[in-house]
Design the sequence.
């Protein structure tokens, strides 16, 4: 989800994904484009991209964003064997940070310590979510990992909704997770899921919840994509102790390190750069409720991509589990108080 201009309207509503102030976002981006003439060509291209995206229906942008995320995750799996999970994740986030820094050129001078601390917390949450989810996908079917990770935003939504009826949605989601985790995996439904992979997935869910909460705060104090660029940079720094050495070792052992770096850069464009840009554009033109319902389809899309791209076949209990979590998310969103 994008890291700018998201606002939690009240503690009685779903805070996971909320409306964006279009005027504020547009003015922030426009002011960033006019800072220096030297940056005009890059910023003009960014502005042209935003104008083109503006002609695409917002729900279509959301669906393409989710598909890009899952394709990026699937494309990352072959890189894990060469660069390691931490190494591939570190390089991917680093490429995304460099690209966003080049486009936004954020100014930190004059920023309060609180603003910088919020960006740092968002960067830590983003780094943890990305690394832990990559570790989960390396050990679990994509649909299973994505569904468990989606418990993060669902938990935030349920906590802030504060309605007794939402207990039923929480129970339905818990039942879905039980189907996923307790009844094995694969087409036959036999066997057991990797406990380390499950721990990674639940850790990613916790980081996802923190990511949502800090996204709201960072979006309120940074203009345009600047907060996203700063948080990605901090996330790359946080991941460096875990993945830098692994990445260097993988590149050194590779027969064509240049092509390997190019592949990582391409994956970084699929996820996270492209999804963030698409969702940010969509959120300027659609309501929180519609966006939340569409995003609830993410676990199902992940399972579909896992099947088509990676040949991961889920059994009936796992498919039912994914459906339970999706229905719980949609139900919690549609029955929230406005």
Sequence:
């Amino acid at each position: 989800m994008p890291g700018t201009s998201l606002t939690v309207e009240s503690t009685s509503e779903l805070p996971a994904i909320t409306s964006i102030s279009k005027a504020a976002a547009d003015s922030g981006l426009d002011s960033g484009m006019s800072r220096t003439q030297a940056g005009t060509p890059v910023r003009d291209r960014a502005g042209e991209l935003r104008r083109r995206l503006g002609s695409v229906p917002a729900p279509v942008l959301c669906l393409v964003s989710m598909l890009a995320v899952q394709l990026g995750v699937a494309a990352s799996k072959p890189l894990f064997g060469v660069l390691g999970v931490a190494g591939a994740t570190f390089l991917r986030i680093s490429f995304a940070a460099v690209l966003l820094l080049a486009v936004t050129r954020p100014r930190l001078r004059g920023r309060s310590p609180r603003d910088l601390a919020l960006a740092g917390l968002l960067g830590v949450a983003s780094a943890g979510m990305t690394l832990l989810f990559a570790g989960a996908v390396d050990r679990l079917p994509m649909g299973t990992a994505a569904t468990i990770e989606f418990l993060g935003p669902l938990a935030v939504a349920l906590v802030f909704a504060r309605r007794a009826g939402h207990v039923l949605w929480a129970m339905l989601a818990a039942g879905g997770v039980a189907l996923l985790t307790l009844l094995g995996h694969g087409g036959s439904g036999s066997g057991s899921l990797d406990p380390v992979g499950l721990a990674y997935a639940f850790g990613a869910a916790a980081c996802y919840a923190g990511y949502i909460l800090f996204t709201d705060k960072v979006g309120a104090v940074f203009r345009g994509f600047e907060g996203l660029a700063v948080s990605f940079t901090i996330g790359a720094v946080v991941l460096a102790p875990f993945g830098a050495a692994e990445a260097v070792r993988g590149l050194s052992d590779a027969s064509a390190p240049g092509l390997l770096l190019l592949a990582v850069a391409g994956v970084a464009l699929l996820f996270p750069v492209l999804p963030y840009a698409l969702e940010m554009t969509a959120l300027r033109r659609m309501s929180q409720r519609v966006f939340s319902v569409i995003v609830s389809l993410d676990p199902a899309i992940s399972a579909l991509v896992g099947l088509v791209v990676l040949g991961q076949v889920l059994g009936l209990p796992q498919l039912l589990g994914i459906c339970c979590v999706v229905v719980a998310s949609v139900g919690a969103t549609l029955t929230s108080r406005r």
Confidence is low (pLDDT under 50) at residues 1-39, 186-190. The CA atoms of residues 236 and 281 lie 24 Å apart.
